Structure formats: structure tokens, C-alpha cells
Amino acid sequence: MALAARTVLITGASRGLGLEYVKQLIKLSSPPEILIAACRDPHSALQLQALAKGSSSVKVIKLDVEIDDSIQSAFKEVKALVGGHGLNLLINNAAIYDQKDEGRLEQQTRSRLQKHFDINVSGPLIVTQTFLPLLQQAASQNKDKPLSCSKAGVIMMTSYMGSQQITFTDGAGEAIHYKTSKSALTMAAVILSRELKESGIFVAALHPGWVRTDMGGDHAMFSPEDSIKGCLKVIGTAGEDFNGKLLTFEGNILPY
């Protein structure tokens, strides 16, 4: 079954995978009635603004996941936009990955580690906490329907690099700041999937593949188009069996 969420919120939507989500969501056979694209600086997000001009369903708002006041202001905007529908789908996409070096232990600083945890872990958690009433509102309107992102869902955009088992097996010791933050985010998805299930809200962590974006680099394996096409297929078809799992954009379950 294809995704059929009436209201969607995406963080980090000004470029990369977030921007590609917006591009593909508006082209779905059942596109969202309200697609809220959030980013730190809407005025400089020229590609995103162009999409909004071409589609009345796209609403661009300011949301900085590091700043609680910004999250609260965004909540008020989104609440007014979705009205009685609530929020069907929250895609926590905003993230950072500092790749100035290999990220070994001797290259870490407290500020570097905290920056990654603030944006990659605390940010998505506080955003989810803040928007939870709107997710619960959407879920309550479809109580008899099974868990799905068309009903009410939270997707944490993570990475296979956050898998403890894969990291241990591969033996890679670099990028401590990024890998530990993505491991924590995946654990958050596992915990939230249990906590929010009683509210009828689906939660999963999703690995988009190694993608040719500013973060992934020019030599990455997949295009943003192919990655998000796969992500949306997974998001649209995932049910209770995938709740709380670490998923790939190809629909596979990874070990955590």
C-alpha cells in the first residue's frame, strides 16, 4: 500500500534528502494535503521556496532543532496549518556529520561530540515530544486502523553506521561523534516504538543508504532520487512488523 498521509512534517528540508522528500511527496498518487517543510533558514532555501510556489500543499516554516523556542514556534505554526487533522507523519531528517577528519578518539572534543548529540539525538527527541499531541490527534481519528505512517508515524532518519553489530563486525573505529549519535537515535526509535504504540503511533529508524548529497559525497552509491523513492515505499508499506526496527531504504531490517 502506498503512503496516504494527509499531513506531513519534514525537518531539514532545505537540501539533500529532506528536499528530495518534498519533491517526491508532492508527486505521489495520493500526495499530502499539507506538506510542511521545515528548515533553519527558509529565506535562503531557494529550491524549497520554488517548490512551495509550484504547489499549494507545501508550506515552508522555520525550525531549528537546536533551539527549543524555534521548535515551539514551529509547533504553533503547524498546529494552525493542520487544524483538526492532526499530524500523520513526522520525518526527523535534520542532522549533521562533521567529516573534517577521521573522527578518531584523539580527534574528538567535548563541543564536537555535544554538537552531534544535540542535533542528531536531542533535536529529534524534543521535536517528537513537542509534536506528539498532533500525532496523537491524527492517530485517534483512525483508532481501528493498524499501525502505519498513513495513520500516525515517526521516522528517524538514521544510518547503518549507528548499528553496533555492523560496526563491531566491520571493525571500523572512525567517526565516533557521528556513529555514537546515530546509535543513540536508533535506540530512541526502539524505545519510542514501545512507548507510543499504545497511542497508535508507528516509530522506526530508517537508513537511506550511502547517498550522493553534501553529507554523503560525490562518490556515494545512490542518488537522492533512488534513495527517497525507496524510503517512501518503505514508509508507505511498513506496518507493525517493522515497528521499532532499523530499516533500510530497500525494505530490509538491519541488526541494531
Automatic annotation (TrEMBL):
Record-linked InterPro entries: Fungal_SecMetab_SDRs, NAD(P)-bd_dom_sf, SDR_fam
UniProt signal peptide: none
Xref: Gene3D superfamilies: NAD(P)-binding Rossmann-like Domain
CDD domains: carb_red_sniffer_like_SDR_c
GO cellular component, one term: cytoplasm
Keyword NADP: yes
Keyword NADP on entry: yes
Keywords per UniProt: NADP, Oxidoreductase
GO molecular function: oxidoreductase activity
Pfam families, per database record: adh_short
Xref: PANTHER family: NADB-LER2, SHORT-CHAIN DEHYDROGENASE/REDUCTASE
Protein's name in the database: C-factor
Native organism: Arion vulgaris
Lineage: Eukaryota, Metazoa, Spiralia, Lophotrochozoa, Mollusca
